[in-house]
Amino acid sequence: MFSGSIVALITPFNHDGEVDYVSLKKLVDYHVAAGSDGIVAVGTTGESSTLTIEEHVKVVMKTVEFAEGRIPVIAGTGANATHESVTFSRLLNNSGIAGCLSVTPYYNKPTQEGLFQHYKAIAEESDVPQILYNVPGRTAVDLKPETVARLSEIENIVALKDATGDLSRIAIHRELCGEDFILLSGDDATGLEFVKQGGQGVISVTNNIAAEDMAKMFRLAKEGKFEEAEIINQRLMPLHKNLFIESSPIPVKWAAHKMGLIANGDLRLPLTELSESARPIVAQAMSEACIY
């Protein structure tokens, strides 16, 4: 259902702070042409926390419209208030999305029982498959494997995006959740190794600017051609690392603008543009990866 190289898509803005739908369509077409396996619209990389509910839903719906059925679109529906995530789920029912990706609630630091009840409430209000998203480095809360296992028993909770970078969890999740539960990496630097150890793919930041290479790498991995895949991965490793030299998506939006994929690299406060000192580092990574 969900596998391969899925892009955690940036949300482009005009200089006035409004969403740039012309650039958004260009991005969708770029990923279709490159062979990306899916798009996550308005996830963390899409600056979901700075969009209003109305903007959030519109960006998802426009992404589905621009995709025209050529590529699956997964909606980011995470929030730190359960009722807000439930609202996203309700508004996006029957919208044409392939699934929802919900990050663990940030800042309020719920217990494991709170996390279970949060995701259970979302799943009950949605008619599409649900992907759990664990990224404790951003949210200050860790969705434990035992809680993932409980949630995997809910019919429409089908996958986990694990951005912990802890590869030891793959075997634990597989044992606790069964062979049918989908495991996706949320960490580009360890994404290929994640698949080698039994994961099905990655939801990627790097994919925003190296979509063709990422798609090819994970196709090779799916075919068991890990040595060939590793050659691509090592070439992209400077991007995997340096696209996080400042808070994502600051570096990747700067890079996407430099490549002409979006009209400008503007972000919404409190994020600010890539610093002058970081720009040559990201540019060098792009050069070493042979994408610019």
From TrEMBL:
Major location (coarse)? cytoplasm
Q: Indicate yes or no for the key word Cytoplasm.
A: yes
The Gene Ontology terms for molecular function here are: 4-hydroxy-tetrahydrodipicolinate synthase activity
Annotated EC:
4.3.3.7
- Site label Part of a proton relay during catalysis, positions: T44, Y107
Gene3D superfamilies documented for this protein: Aldolase class I
Q: What's a Pfam family this protein contains?
A: DHDPS
Q: Does the keyword Flavoprotein apply?
A: no
Q: List where in the cell it is found.
A: Cytoplasm
UniProt catalytic activity: L-aspartate 4-semialdehyde + pyruvate = (2S,4S)-4-hydroxy-2,3,4,5-tetrahydrodipicolinate + H2O + H(+)
Which residues are the active-site ones? Y133 (proton donor/acceptor), K161 (schiff-base intermediate with substrate)
What's in the keyword line of the UniProt record? Amino-acid biosynthesis, Cytoplasm, Diaminopimelate biosynthesis, Lyase, Lysine biosynthesis, Schiff base
InterPro entries tied to this protein: Aldolase_TIM, DapA, DapA-like, Schiff_base-form_aldolases_AS, Schiff_base-form_aldolases_CS
The record ties this protein, via SMART domains, to:
DHDPS
The terms describing its cellular component in GO are: cytosol
Signal peptide feature range: none
Q: In which pathway does it act?
A: Amino-acid biosynthesis; L-lysine biosynthesis via DAP pathway; (S)-tetrahydrodipicolinate from L-aspartate: step 3/4
An annotated GO BP: lysine biosynthetic process via diaminopimelate
Positions with a binding annotation for pyruvate: T45, I203
Annotated family: Belongs to the DapA family.
Q: How does it assemble?
A: Homotetramer; dimer of dimers.
According to its UniProt entry, the function of this protein is described as: Catalyzes the condensation of (S)-aspartate-beta-semialdehyde [(S)-ASA] and pyruvate to 4-hydroxy-tetrahydrodipicolinate (HTPA).
Q: What is this protein called?
A: 4-hydroxy-tetrahydrodipicolinate synthase
